[in-house]
Amino acid sequence: MTEPLSMDAVEPTAPPKSQWADVWAQFKAHRGAMIASALLAVIVAAVLIGPWLWGIDPTKLDIRAKDMRPIFTVLWDGDAKVGWNHPLGTDNLGRDLLARLLSGGQISLAVGMAAMVLSVVLGTLIGVLAGYFKFLDGILMRLTDLFLALPLLPLLLVAVLLFRDRLSATFGPEGGTFILIVTLVGVTSWMQTARIVRGDVLALKEREFILAARSIGTSPAKMITRHLLPNVMSPIMVSATLGIATAIITESALSFLGFGFPPDFPTWGKLLFDSVDRMELYPERVIWPGLMISLTVLSVNYVGDGLRDALDPRIRGR
Amino acid sequence: MKLMTALLGAAAAVAMTPMAMAADGERGRDGEVKIIYWQAPSILNTYLSGGTKDSEAASLVIEPLARYDTEGVLVPYLVDEVPTVANGGVSEDLTQITWKITPGLVWSDGTAFTSADAKFTYEYCTHPEGGCAYATKYEGVKSVETPDDLTVVVTFDKPTPNPYGPFVGSEAPILQAAQFADCIGPKAPECTEENFNPIGTGPFTVTEFKPNDVITFAANENYREAGKPAFAKVTFKGGGDATAAGRAVMETGEFDYAWNLQLAPDVIAKMEEGGKGTPVAGFGPLVERIMLNNTNPDPALGPDERSVIKPHPFLGDPAVYKAMSLAIDRPLLVEVGYGQAGKVTCNWVPVPANYASTTFTCDTQDIAGANKMLDDAGIVDTDGDGVREKDGVPLKVLYQTSTNAVRQDFQALIKQWWSEIGIEAELRNIDASVFFGGDPGSPDTFQKFYADVEMYANTFNGTDPQSYLGNGLCDKAPSPATQWQGENVSRFCMEEFDAIHAELANTADIAKRGELAAKLNDLMIENGGMIPLVHRGRLSAHANSLGGVALNVWDSELWNIADWYRISN
Amino acid sequence: MLTYTIRRLILSVPTLLFISLVIYLLLELAPGDPMAQVPLTVPPEVKEKMREALGVGQPWYIAFPKWLYQFFVVEPMYLIDAIFGTTMTEGEQRVISWQTRSPVMDIVVQRLPQTLWVVGVAYVVAIAIALPIGIYSAYRQYSWFDNAGTFVTMVGFSVPPFFSGVVVIVVFSVWLGWFPSIYDTTHEVDDWDSFVKQLKQMVMPVMVLALQITSQLSRFMRASMLDNLNQDYVRTARAKGLGEKTVVMVHVLRNSLIPVVTVIAIGIPSIFGGAIITEQVFKVNGIGQLLITAIQANDLPMVQTLTFIFAVLIVLFNLIADILYGILDPRIRYD
């Protein structure tokens, strides 16, 4: 993994370039990644600032204005119950769908990202350690087997039983719930990443460049961070992208079991689930949250693709 | 009792007439009928069942001596008439009831049905190690005697105004003594073959039972009525969810009958547009209510004091719970949650009419009135945060219920209304298998009631509410001493209530019993035991081509499957 | 490699015993009550009697060894009895479900066909679709095919089966009426027509499941191929004058398979485990539905047995994956 000799370096007129400038230049050249970053930024900005701009309380009921359709329904159905006060319509209790999507996004994005990071970090750590150090392999992989085998639902019930009250006493009810959900999702979804990373590391550590690095006395820590991790980035990126979708959906599943956020607190996953029964009558209620989840995952995927390309010196040099 | 007898006779006569259609022609002429239950039956022995789904599936095969019809009136099944004091079947002192089995009845295997089978069933269910689910049906029975093959004499240990417990209703069917002889007591759960394939007297016999999945039944060749059942085969599928079951009957027409569709009215209406089936509703005594915790659920109290020590910091104040009730728009709740399967109710016991109280009205919401009530009681918002305080304690309640789309809608609506009268609600929903489970180790069971208010529905079997009203007795309150078991979930306790209930237990006169029951109902509501919300019906759906369906909420829904037939078009 | 395999197999016995103990304690600790579905009208004393009759609430040091004995001694003996007609298990208690009061293994055997049909076929279909998509997407990175593939797989993975399942039911069962919305588990395939009927009822659940699995597998395949396509050995192979097909399909593919093998190895036990939500949506009533209803009903013997069988498969397939790594890349050594 040596840097290709750059001609710029010997040319005195060109300004010196740092590695990160190179990475950024390569990232910028990736059209998909740029569009995706912009989209992701828009989504994040919308859910952060949107509720404040839009100003309608997502839990506020207005039963007279229930079952309103999105404003554009007028285009093909002149009699539809629509109004500019609820541009995306309302649900069966008259809660504003736009407000719910925006504030639901805060939780879904936060849970999705945090749980994904936790699961990827855990998975990578365990995978690399198991793959690189032979004496850790047995015990860590048996631990992985154990976690793969544990039934999820009883595990969640036990975790809630043991930790919910303690966490909400320390971090307040909402902070406690957030920590609990993120930890639960993260702790129950790292195993696949760990197995994949370990498999790749097992193969990598027999490659010539690793042997070369070892022969010049590179310390294990350096070996892992400089030589192994950059080469297992692709599967980690894929795991991360898929992990967000899983975390957002799992969060909604948790709230049906009664240990997510309170039932009137919207999240994308819950909005989607609650609307499935009325899918034929009010398709917008499933399309919007479904679209938001898909868009988030898609943009994270492209950003990941771009990052991976940008970080790979072989591609960057081309 | 006289009045009741007359009613019984009249109703029985009426109930029998419209069924002529099902008896036209030979047995099994209409082929197959397909039923879907979104909870799948696990066992076909009612006495070992883990839920209504099992006893309803079993009711196709095993039958009681008499059962309730759609109006809640007893009709004879395996006997010629229902014994009463008037016809001499029940002794004057109300301690003995004598059933006369219809001569010539046979089991589906062709052997004779005798009184020994009834006596055996009694012994089977009352064996202390058998784990019989419906042992209460045989509560207070001193002995079951069989003077001859067709006579069953049940003797009670004290005068029993309602002697129709043993062998009556879908929860007390008769098992065949010959089949279950080796399955008594601790051996009951081991008899898989018997529990999956009981021999019965009912219109169908089990062909194949796949637990928690699907059951196939075939017409019973030895069924007592000629030309019935009209169907040769029943496919009884279980599993999935209520939406899918409703869709399969009303939209795709794959199934003929779907059980207990607890769905929002607009969802049902949309399904009905599919044009393949029709929803039907029936009303039993099921009431959706908010229970008020009469003890203090403060988490700061230790596990032995939380939800044990009285009083609650503010819920005991009549102004508070009356205002909470007044702020609720019940007609809207019905419209949003149940539609044709719900009615407004202010009572704990809404039916039968004889026992229902007429004291209260509650069908109009009055936010202003509720606010005034709280203001007058001196419970006002002193610190300007929008939440009232009583003696310095803010009126913040934790409002829990089981996870269920309609219940979460109710929570959201009621939270909003309460916020308008200065009461803040924090909502919590809990998975039904934990909430209704009696695990003393879980903090989230409805008995433990680690919340200020909680919402669920409850009902009683048969037509007599005496034991149901007993849920308000002081000594039935759950506590650590009872492993958190007990039906008095709100921990309601009043000497007067206990005294009237004792009087009810010793009263035989039907009118007097109704009066006492209504008084108990009023005491409970008036003194802050609960806030009734909706009188809930059972909503099921049947295919438009399926005739003879009469939705019964007092007994098994499939009680008259022998009379079902295919409407030819 | 052989000694490694043998060592791992021997080691898997204590591993599995430990896993089963952990599962048991977890289930024991989880709140819940097998009597939760009994109507509220049944009084608590009666429920307590019912629990006693089932043996609920025995301390773990009695109940766990009992389960071990029943599962490892009585059940295999019962199997031998069933095959050879012997009567070794006379009077011995098998693992009994609390819900149905019948032997757990009988129900598992009853449920296997539909789960293998639906989930197994979905897996085969998914692998058959995902690998070519992944390979071609990587080979033609950022082509329209790659971008379309990315879009479809990402949306496919973001849409949970409780939603996609209902969408296909509404479209294909309600509107078009092509396929049944409810799977008939009593259906037997014995001629062409019944085979067609079986295919029809399988189409929708297989479609929904395969979409999820395909999305996942093709992403890993693509990423791994991309990594390898840029390696020096590929340039060397091309420089040697090897055909493009040989380079991609033999050299690159073989080196890219490690992550894919890992994902498939984790996935295969889940064929047995069933697909809980998909099975529920289409009423397939296979192992997944059995597990979830058992968990909801707190049927400990059933949950314990199912998860343990699942654990055995996980340990086994992860071992197979480890062996496959060695075959795919002979430089990987474990000894």
Report the β-strand fraction of chain C as a percent range: under 5%
Characterize the main sheet of chain A.
none
Q: Which fold name is given in CATH as the topology of chain A?
A: MetI-like fold
Low-confidence stretches of chain A: 1-10
What structural category arises from helix and sheet content of chain A? mainly alpha
Number of domains of chain A: 1
Q: Give the mean pLDDT of chain C.
A: 85
State the helix count of chain A: 12
CATH domain class name of chain A: Mainly Alpha
Mean pLDDT of chain A: 83
Structural descriptors:
heterotrimer; B: 569 residues; alpha+beta; Dipeptide-binding Protein, domain 3; eleven-stranded mixed sheet; three-stranded antiparallel sheet; 16 helices; 20 strands; 25% helix; globular; disordered N terminus; C: 335 residues; mainly alpha; 12 helices; 0% strand
Structural account:
The complex is a heterotrimer of chains A (318), B (569) and C (335). With 318 residues, chain A is mostly helical. Chain A has one domain (27-60, 95-311): MetI-like (MetI-like fold, Orthogonal Bundle), CATH 1.10.3720.10. Chain A has 12 helices and no strands. The two termini of chain A are 15 Å apart. Residues 1-10 of chain A have low confidence and may be disordered. By secondary structure, chain B is an alpha+beta fold. Chain B has helices at 2-16, 20-23, 52-58, 115-126, 177-180, 192-196, 242-250, 265-272, 318-326, 330-337, 367-376, 405-420, 432-435, 466-469, 495-505, 510-526; strands at 32-37, 66-68, 74-76, 96-100, 141-145, 151-156, 204-210, 214-219, 233-238, 257-258, 277-292, 342-344, 389-390, 393-394, 396-402, 424-430, 453-458, 530-543, 546-547, 565-566. Chain C has 335 residues and is mainly α. At the B-C interface, helix 6, strand 9, helix 7 and helix 13 of B face helix 2, helix 4, helix 6 and helix 11 of C.
